[in-house]
Amino acid sequence: MTAAPQTVLVVDDTPENLDLMKAILAPHYKVKVAISGEAALKLLAASAPDIILLDVMMPGLDGYEVCRRIKADPARRHVPVVLVTAIAEAMDDGKGFAAGACDYITKPVSGPVVLTRVRTHLAYRGLLADVATAVELLSVGDTATAADTLAAAIEGALP
């Protein structure tokens, strides 16, 4: 039995950008799309994706505000948010990181860059979950299982 594919939520107000991201990501991940920040927050209220690719410049709620709201939600704050931004905007990446984003991708996007960033942040998220599990096991005195969990996490993280 194979595991269900991980889910990527792509948020962009330009349908062509959504189509491009779907073409890049769909062979590897389940892709959900939202055409606005408001639509993204509604989708997130129903279920959390594994990662979010979020356009910065959108009418209504911009990407920074959407990111802040996601990170303020205890049920969603663990989801990595990668901002997708024009090169000029990338110079102000401090604002995105302050909002809670873990990374950014510049437009026009490159398929290999998008896939590498998504894969990297999903792997990092998985590693953090494994470490959290090991810490929990250690707190109840199950050192053998904790050691096995950490060893598997480290082995899985190595290239």
From TrEMBL:
Gene3D superfamilies: 3.40.50.2300. The modification 4-aspartylphosphate is found at D55. GO terms for biological process: phosphorelay signal transduction system. InterPro entries: Bact_response_regulator (IPR050595), CheY-like_superfamily (IPR011006), Sig_transdc_resp-reg_receiver (IPR001789). PROSITE patterns: RESPONSE_REGULATORY. SMART domains: REC (SM00448). The keyword Phosphoprotein applies. It comes from the Bacteria. Keywords: Phosphoprotein. Residues 7-122 form the Response regulatory domain. This is Response regulatory domain-containing protein. It comes from Magnetospirillum moscoviense. The lineage of its organism: Bacteria, Pseudomonadati, Pseudomonadota, Alphaproteobacteria, Rhodospirillales.
